[in-house]
Design goal:
With 144 residues, this protein is mainly beta. Helices cover 7% and strands 58% of the residues. The chain has one helix and nine strands.
């Protein structure tokens, strides 16, 4: 495990359209998108233009060219949250954590250019009673 700081920015959004606009403004380079009737992936900054029969954006995970992790989650109908997570140098004023990388096998829908795993940077906090506890998992893109 390696030490790192973590800066989180949370944006609450009132509509799936607003969530899509905010996600696009972050200029993601790769990730996955889940709409009501379609799940897909994108790479090389090639976000698809949503089609009307896909329905609303429900969830997404992506990363941008600066290494930020972008996560969209539906909280309730008409309420979504976008979380931007950015790794920081230890001691910069943001909370410091321990980190490790984990890779999860993707479903058949997510295999991209021979890459069949989702890559995450996990953040853990030290706890006197329990040792270390999970804090956040930041999507880092796809991996072999």
């Amino acid at each position: 495990m390696e030490p790192a700081g973590l800066r989180l920015e949370t944006r609450h959004l009132d509509t799936p359209e607003a969530a899509w606009t905010e996600l696009m403004a972050c200029r993601p380079v790769e990730g996955w998108l889940q709409f009501q009737s379609k799940t897909l992936v994108f790479v090389d900054g090639q976000l698809p233009e949503p089609e009307s029969d896909w329905g609303w954006l429900l969830d997404a995970e992506a990363c941008d060219g600066a290494g930020r992790s972008l996560s969209v989650r539906t909280l309730s109908p008409g309420s979504l949250r976008l979380v931007l997570a950015e790794r920081q140098t230890v001691g910069t004023g943001e909370p410091d954590y321990l980190t490790d990388e984990v890779r999860h096998w993707a479903t058949g829908k997510v295999k991209v250019l021979g890459k069949a795993r989702l890559r995450y940077l996990r953040y853990w906090r030290r706890d006197d009673l329990d040792g270390v506890l999970p804090v956040f998992a930041a999507f880092q893109g796809f991996a072999e």
